[in-house]
Amino acid sequence: MVDYGDRGPSSHIEDRDPREWEKTSPKRSGIGVIAGFLGALAIGVGGVMIGGVNQVLEFIGIERQIPIPELDDARALSLKDKAAILLGDTERVWGRAFAAQGKTYDPVTLVLYADQATGQCGVVTGRQGPVYCAFDRKIYLDLEFINTLEAEWQAKGDFPMAFIIAHETGHHVQNLNGEMDRYFNAFSDPNAEAVNQLQVRLELQADCYSGVWTHHAEAQFGILEDGDIEEAIAAAFAFGDDTLQMRTRGVINEAAFTHGSGEQRARWFQIGFKSGDLASCNTWDVQPFDKL
């Protein structure tokens, strides 16, 4: 279980969940405050769909229908509190890392919603998993999905949620650093397989960045407890394209990978975690592709 300590929550939370959580909790930790209607929303985690150069949706895997178990109010409120602290931890880690490079980190916003959210990147639902929108620079997360991790994917414990938020924030770091342009620029290439390969590189780098974040979060805050890294590795394997394809289609087609195999995802997370260095996450220049 992640050690949340007494660190404060992020203020970059948009709670778009319509349910009345205050009926079940005496304390909100500052979470759930939104400024009315927000015109620019965003989305982002697993596969990537493109609807124009500025519209990127990320889904945890390929097309599928995941049965989502009921989420009781008390647990949902607890998850919101934890998500806000984890997002705050990403701000603290990446803020320091960017400052060391003479830059300013512009935090990503985490949108918590129920069932469905709509924005400039399109529509995302809880069945698609968490997503990051490069154009709006926001992460969308339906907390029902966390229950799905435990009930359907056997991703137990608190760290899978930390892994997801760190992965999506990793995409935000890619966006801020201009690395996502390598993927956007690929759309002038009609070769679908080449585009898929660039997407795999994009996703594996985000996995590696989540490892880098974990390294520094542990150094700065001591967030890790026994079993947390094992939980992250188990989640990485569960979200591998090979695992998802076998679950949904019964066969594995490497040419259709968008995120990498479970082994690749777990390995790149560990590379980032062990090194703590963004430079170790250069998935773009690993050649040939099958050596990733």
List the helices and strands and how they pair.
Layout: E1 13-15, E2 48-50, E3 56-58, H1 73-100, E4 109-113, E5 116-119, E6 122-125, E7 131-133, E8 138-142, H2 144-152, H3 159-177, H4 181-184, H5 192-221, H6 228-238, H7 241-248, H8 262-275
Parallel strand pairs: 1-4, 4-8
Antiparallel strand pairs: 2-3, 5-6, 7-8
Helix pairs in contact: 1-3, 1-5, 3-5, 3-6, 5-8, 6-8
What does this structure look like?
- The relative contact order is 0.16.
- Helices cover 42% and strands 10% of the residues.
- The strands form 3 sheets. The protein has a 4-stranded mixed sheet. Strands 2-3 form a two-stranded antiparallel ribbon. Strands 5-6 form a two-stranded antiparallel sheet.
- The chain starts with 12 loop residues before the first strand and ends in a 17-residue tail after the last helix.
- It has 292 residues and is of the alpha/beta class.
Keywords:
two-stranded antiparallel sheet; 4-stranded mixed sheet; 292 residues; alpha/beta; 8 helices
What is the helix tally?
8
Structural class by secondary-structure content: alpha/beta
Low-confidence stretches: 20-68
Helix content: 40-55%
Spatial extent as radius of gyration: 18 Å
Tell me the strand percentage band.
Answer: 5-15%
Largest sheet: 4 strands, mixed
- General shape: globular
Mean pLDDT: 76
C-alpha termini separation: 30 Å
Order of helices and strands: EEEHEEEEEHHHHHHH
The number of distinct β-strands equals 8
Outline:
This protein has 292 residues and is α/β, with parallel strands linked by helices. It contains 8 helices and 8 strands.
